Each structure stands twice: as structure tokens, then as C-alpha cells.
Amino acid sequence: MTLTEINFDGIVGPSHNYAGLSLGNIASASHKGDPSYPRDAALQGVAKMRGNLERLGVQGFLLPLPRPNHALAERLAYDGTEAPALRAAPWSASSMWTANAATVSPAPDTKDGKCHLTVANLVTMLHRAQEWPDTLRQLELAFSDAAHFAVHGPVPVTFGDEGAANHMRLCEGHGSEGVEVFVYGRPGGRFPARQHEQASRLIARAHGLDPDKCVFIEQNPAAIEAGAFHNDVVSVANERVLFTHEEAFADREGAYDAIRAAFPALEVVEVPSSAVSLGEAIRTYLFNAQLLTLPSGEMVLIVPTECRESESVWGWCEQMMASNGPIREVIPVDVRQSMANGGGPACLRLRVVCDPATVDPRFLLDEAKADTLESFIGDTWPEQIDPGDLWSETLTKSVVAAREALLGALDLRDLI
Ligand code: SUG
User: Is 74 a catalytic residue?
Assistant: First the structure.
């Protein structure tokens, strides 16, 4: 059995819009009320997947969830008079950020030798808290092979859990035993701390991880304050490399020491604040990058194009590429529609280390399926959504029809 890292990208749903729903997410707040372009957004996502399929030879995807969510609207006693945020929540296409779908512990790390996935409860934000039941259904379908996967329901709602966005894994190779790093926030700041320490500890126990191979680290409150609402906005790990901003963790040295104690081969690639300020790192999403090991063994970093346009960020990247460090190339991709809601290349993917043959093949991409996605999205996804369009009969009909047509084309009508 060949264990491979598969990136499951969220296909951007036809209801993608900018409602400013996420307190503490600066991009989302600053684009509130802007027109959105769901077709462009979804095509940008497919182009990113195509690039990675070509680079890695394997790529997965998860489907948009049913929107508008009439059951949520009913629970909100929706009658058209509510505050704009409540009006918009049932329309959110936020499941596109699959880094928040679940926390994943690959088979080599777990007691029973299965890959464990716990769906994230996302309780901190109303528009995200509606995701988990439909996400769970999808995970149960994609990873239904019970000999290889264990899919868990959400942790109790008392403990906010935002999934893989606050979880990193260090290992010699994806198929070998890893050290799992859980990053949590402490409440009490200006913005919500969305990952609760107890949620992370509970998941580590439920997944059957070896306590000596788990590290729990506090996120820097200053980073949350500056807009890093998830840890993956300020650091990312791949194999033995931790790529991080100097100000990512509450106790910088303590964090590196704790990881090194469990994983002595750790290589930290740290970007100092003097080279890239915390604010610029968050604005450009340098760390919300996909740090990938190519089949050649070379490591590359897929960053948003915003990084290429920033003097300090690109200057640092060029210097890094010229050095002899582990990250050999930095590749910009255009995911601007997602970025405007605070979601970069890393937010758009959930990493699952497994044998691709054990995954329901309907969730795996190939060139022909990428063509299908492009053609359905091009024909049926709304070109533009203005905030006032939400709940209009025309838009409601068109987003429902667009999603259902795509599910039909992918033989995934089970998800309707
Ligand atoms: O939860 N934005 C998402 C972005 C999630 C990014 N994910 C990771 N960092 N892994 C969020 O804040 C904005 C929706 C709106 O405002 O309409 C939003 O939900």
C-alpha cells in the first residue's frame, strides 16, 4: 500500500459572496458588501487544482454544500427583517475552505493503523457552524472504506474546533510516523480564538495518537489580534520543515523546543518580522501556502499572487530561493476571489495521507474531470452576486440548479 498526501480542494460554490461574516478575518470584513464573482472564483480554484495535479499526479476535491440552507433559515426564524449577517449566513459558500473541514491523522500516527478524520464543529461563526453535518456526510462517502478510515463526528460544541487549519504534521516522509502539532488560541482578546485547546486534546485522544508524538502550542495572541484567525495564516509544515513567521506562537523558542523534543529532525524556516511584518504576512497570506514535496523530492511553495506583488514578501522569497534552504521554488497562483474572503491556497485544501486506491474515486480529479468541472461551472455558476441578490427567487433557483447539475455530472447525486 502506497501512502500519498492527497490535497482535497473545496470547489467554490455557486453562492460565493462577500457578507463580512467573520469577525477577526480582516479580508472578509474589508470586502463586505462587494459584488462577488462565483464563476471566476470556482475557475480559479480548478486552475489551482490542475496545476497541482500536474505537479503531484494526484488531486482530490470536495463538493459545495447545499445553499441556501433553508433549515438554518428556519431556525433563525427568517422573515426578511433580520440583520444582514443573519440574512447572509444560510448562503455562505464557506465550505470551500476545506482546511476547516476536518482534522486528519494519517494511519502511521494512530493506534489502530487507520486514517482518522474528525469533522470540525466550526462553532465560533454561525455561517460556518452550519457546515459540519453536510461535510460529515461527504467525508463518510469519500472515506467510506472502514478498513482504512475512521470518520468521527464533531467534538462537543463547548470546544470550538476549526480543523486542519490549526494542525500541522512533521515527518520524515508522508508515509512514515509523524508528530502532530496542535495550535490553539486563548480567549479574551479583541477577536475570537477559534481553536480551543481542549478540542485539540480531545481529537488527539480520539484519533489514538501517541501522547509523546503530540505537541500542543498556543498561538500568539498578537497574531490573532492582527488578523491570523487560524494558525495556517502564519505557519505551515511539510515533512521535516516548519515554515513560520517569527510572531506565530505565544512562546517562540518554547514552541520550537517542544516540537524538536518530539521530532529532532525539525528544520525551521522562519521569516523574521524585520523582513516581513506580521501585518504584511497576513495581508499577502505568505504562510497560507501549500508546501509540497514533488515526486522528485524537491519542496515547493504555492503562494497567492498577492505575495508576488509585495516588495518585502517577494524580496524575502527571492532571497530564500537563492539560498540553500529546503524550499526550492515559490510558485504564485491566482485565487483572488477566495483571498478577498480570507482564504488562500492552503485554506482551500484538506490534506489526507492515504492510499488513493482506498478513496471513493468520484472524489479524485483527473484531466477529464477537470474539463467537466470547468464546463459545468462556466455554464451554470452565476457570473456575479450583489449582496441584495441573496434570497431572490432567480438566484435561489440558479444556485440550487448549478450545484445539482454538477453533482449529476460527477455521479454524486447521493449528496443532493
Ligand atoms: O472562516 N471566511 C473564512 C476563511 C477561512 C480560511 N481558512 C483557513 N484559514 N484555513 C473564515 O473566516 C468569510 C465569509 C464572508 O464573510 O462572507 C469567511 O467565512
Answer: no
